[in-house]
Amino acid sequence: MKTRLLIGALCSLSVFPACNKDKITGLEREVKEKEKQIEQLEAQVQHLQFTNNSLLDRMSDLSIVNKEGAESIRQSLQNINQQYAFIEDLTNRIQEKDSLNLALVMNLKRSLDDVRDEDVTVEVRGGMVHVSISDKLLFESGSATVTSQARSVLGKVATVVSDHKDLNIMVEGHTDDIPISGSCMKDNWDLSVKRATAVVRVLEQEHYVVPKRMIAAGRSSYLPKADNGTPEGRSKNRRTEILIMPRLDQFFQLLEPVAVAD
Length: 262
Description:
alpha+beta; CATH 3.30.1330.60; 2 domains; five-stranded mixed beta sheet; 7 helices; 5 strands; rod-shaped
């Protein structure tokens, strides 16, 4: 409308002398350029309005996401804190167990100080205390009868384990890989089981270790400590091991996963 009025006014100027026509033409050209600029500015305004509305919509969505995300982050942090507490508790219990194992090893070695190292070894393996006693100290060859010297050694072990009633005891019999010959034993399985059982009976009947704390197991020749290809290796493999370990119910309680929020 403004443009038409402007052009009409310019047309009315046509009555002026020719010298003014050039000025009118220039003004018309400037008007057209201004119109183009106005159209461009209007297009830019529309684009900015669209962009602004889009940003407002995204901010609104982001606000909702942030509320939900904040709750999710809070639950995640709570779960992490619970898991951290569980790990910290587990670490403390493991340290306590390691300290107990160390104390057991020191007490056992002190009690067995007069026994030769090649006949009895005390060490921690797999989180448990292992007392390994050679068969030449415990039994006669091919026999499951405990010797009098071995009974004294077992008495010293029993004294130490009796002070820790929350621990269980597993007695394992081991042999070399040479098949046993004789009518008393069927095979090395039979020999290893009977030797473990004989040790458990001595601990129970002569040294009053509570029987429900004990397990007797035979491993035959299938868990060697050394190479069965040499006499020295076979001698090391013929042994009875007393494993001092935590009760299974305590072990499973230790491994129970911490409850976490959904």
